Amino acid sequence: MSDPRRRVTIALEGLEIPCRVGVTADERRDARLLRVDVRLTPLDPSAYAADELEGTIDYATVATLVAGIAAEREYKLVERLATVVADRLWALAPLAELTVVVSKPAPPMPVSAAAASAEVTYRA
Q: Is residue 88 part of a domain?
C-alpha cells in the first residue's frame, strides 16, 4: 500500500507538436508548432519502487499519444485540444492528478504576445 503523503509526478515539458489550430480556416490551413506540457501524478507511486517500466507511465507513450491527437484533426481552440489530450491521458492510467497545458506561440492578434495557452487540470 502506498503512503498517501508521497506523490510522484511525471512531467513532459515543451513537447513541440505540429497541429492545425486556429479560429479561421486560413489560420488552420497549415500546421504550426504548439508547445504542450503534461504533468501526470499516478494514484499509486509505489509502482516505481521496482525501478521497472512495467506498471509505470511511459512518457514516450504519452508523447506519442499527444502527437497523434494533434495530428488526427484540426482544432479551432487550444482549449479543445488540451481537453481532448487530458481526456485520453486520464483514461491511460489511474491518476491522482493530471495537468495539460497547450501553448500557441505568437498568436495572431492586434497586440503582440509570446503565446496564448489553455490549461486543463483533472483530479481524482
A: yes
Distances (CA, A) of 42 to 54, 58, 75, 102, 103: 14, 12, 29, 21, 24
Please tell me what DSSP assigns to residue 75.
Answer: B
Among residues 35, 111, 45, 39, the alpha carbon closest in space to that of 78 is found at: 35
Q: What is the pLDDT of residues 18-28, one digit of tens each?
A: 999 999 999 99
pTM: 0.91
Q: Supply 100's cell numbers.
A: 495539460
Nearest-Å Rg of the Cα atoms of the chain is 16
Residue whose entry in the numeric block shows the C-alpha cell 513537447: 15
Domain that holds residue 28: 10-123
Q: Count of domains in the chain?
A: 1
